[in-house]
Specification:
about 475 residues; 9-stranded mixed β-sheet; 24 strands; globular
């Protein structure tokens, strides 16, 4: 049994991040089930409600790798109309072309419906005038800020050889577009460039060493004003990603729940790059999700409660402990093993997390101080960093004098928590499972408490939601 104290300072307001909450959307497969196609295109109620539940402030489209071949012109007729949809090629060999029934028109309608800023990943192989025309097309139905991400993961191997570019080639391809976009920059348009560390915890995470430094240097030498770039996009939130032997249960929990600490190291690297090239310090995590294996035996562990606990700790770390301004979960309705819903549109444990996480962002974030008599220790050889973190982490916000707390118990044992500074308890809910590795979706359970209570006992490896007033 562990004992911990959480001190909430209602006067210590953390810096606001109004664009933090985000989701990824893809154009193919009817937007991964966002729309149903019969005699016309209709938003699926379950998928749409999952997006609404998250209250996203940004929606990223048309996908990651799928953006490489996407042609926005194939789906720009009237909203929810099926006429004149054109087949679009897929980036992966063997994937048949599809008509984009979740096209640009539907995407912009969804942004308007949920009040989200468009974050569009540009197909760098399109002609410059096609991208400029894209901005004009978006402006026909949307008057707010548009964020353009110039390319997706160019620092990784691409599905087809003709899409693979080294740093110099990537810089050469995007230079004409950047010159048109930045001299002068269109009003209300933000431009972002992809950034990637060479190593993470000593493990290479790109096949092209020095890719980021080299392509940015090439852009600078080509006369691109890098100080006009608005944000850097990173994708280093796919953790814990076991590239070595599959660890035993205790080590797997410790590594998973400590791994978001590596994001702090990665942000420091990214900040160093941005400072060196005198770029904006804003960082957007435009993709993240729990990844245990990739195309491996344990891919579906992303569905487990442990996957949801990782997602919370990743979100909390980005929101509170780093300068990351935005984080888009992969993906909204669900893609393969990731997202809010499975392929049958049933809620996953990540969905349950967002049920309580999303409303917290409506309030002001508060500083939380934690003391605990135990730590979560990783003594496994799999990762050399992030060896030890406090046994408890928490996120707090306040709205209308009500303090909301989400608390993660990282230990496989009870953790007694004393909460001070936020008032007395008025709501107590828990998200837990008999096994943190179970793929079954759990539900928030209401827990009895006594009026005026300020101490609670947390279940092993669980999330707890508290309201105090």
């Amino acid at each position: 049994m562990a004992n911990s104290t959480i001190i909430v300072n209602t006067r210590n307001i953390l810096p606001a991040k109004p664009l933090f909450q985000g989701l990824n959307l893809q154009w193919q497969d009817n937007g991964d089930g966002l729309v149903d196609v019969t005699d016309k295109i209709r938003f699926n109620d379950v998928s749409l409600n999952s997006v609404k539940m998250c209250s996203p402030k940004m929606l990223r489209y048309p996908g990651g790798t799928e953006s490489i071949t996407y042609d926005w012109r194939a789906s720009v007729n009237d909203n929810l109309a099926m006429a004149n949809r054109q087949f679009v090629a897929r980036p992966y060999p063997g994937d048949a072309p599809q008509k984009p029934y979740f096209g640009l028109s539907e995407y912009l309608q969804l942004c308007k419906t949920v009040g989200a800023t468009p974050l569009y990943t540009v197909n760098i192989f399109n002609k410059v005038n096609d991208t400029l025309a894209l901005i004009d097309k978006i402006r026909e139905s949307y008057n707010g800020t548009i964020c353009l991400e110039i390319g997706n993961e160019p620092y990784l191997n691409q599905p087809q050889p003709q899409q693979d570019l080294n740093a110099a080639q990537f810089a050469s391809v995007i230079t004409p577009l950047l010159k048109r976009l930045l001299q002068p920059k269109p009003a209300g348009v933000k431009i972002g460039l992809p950034v990637r560390s060479d190593l993470m915890n000593g493990v290479p995470i790109t096949p092209y060493a020095g890719f980021t430094w080299n392509y940015l240097l090439a852009l600078k030498q080509a006369g691109i004003p890098l100080d006009k770039i608005d944000f850097a996009s990173i994708h280093t939130g796919y953790l814990p990603y076991f590239v070595a032997d599959w660890p035993e249960d205790k080590a797997r929990v410790a590594i998973t729940l400590n791994s978001p600490q590596m994001l702090i190291q990665d942000v420091k690297y990214t900040q160093n790059v941005l400072t060196n090239y005198r770029m904006s310090p804003d960082i957007y995590m435009t993709e993240f999700a729990p990844v245990f294996t990739l195309q491996g035996e344990h891919d579906y562990d992303a569905h487990s409660l442990l996957g949801a606990l990782y997602t919370f700790e990743c979100l909390r770390t980005m929101l509170v402990d780093t300068t990351i301004r935005h984080a888009s979960l992969w993906s909204a309705p669900g893609n393969y093993v990731w997202g809010l819903l499975d392929t049958a549109r049933k809620p996953l444990n990540t969905y349950r997390l967002y049920e309580r996480f999303a409303p917290m962002l409506d309030g002001q974030l508060l500083k939380v101080d934690i003391t605990t008599d135990k730590k979560l220790v990783n003594d496994s050889y799999v990762y050399v960093g992030s060896q030890s973190t406090p046994s408890v982490s928490a996120l707090a916000s306040i709205k209308d004098r009500v303090v909301r707390l989400l608390i993660l118990n990282k230990l496989d044992e009870t953790n007694n928590i004393k909460v001070t500074g936020g008032g007395t308890l008025r709501k107590f809910q828990e998200l837990a499972a008999n096994s943190v590795f179970s793929l079954d979706t759990q539900s928030w359970s209401n827990t009895d408490f006594i009026a005026g209570q300020t101490s609670v006992s947390l279940l092993p490896l669980s999330l707890t939601y508290l309201e105090l007033a």
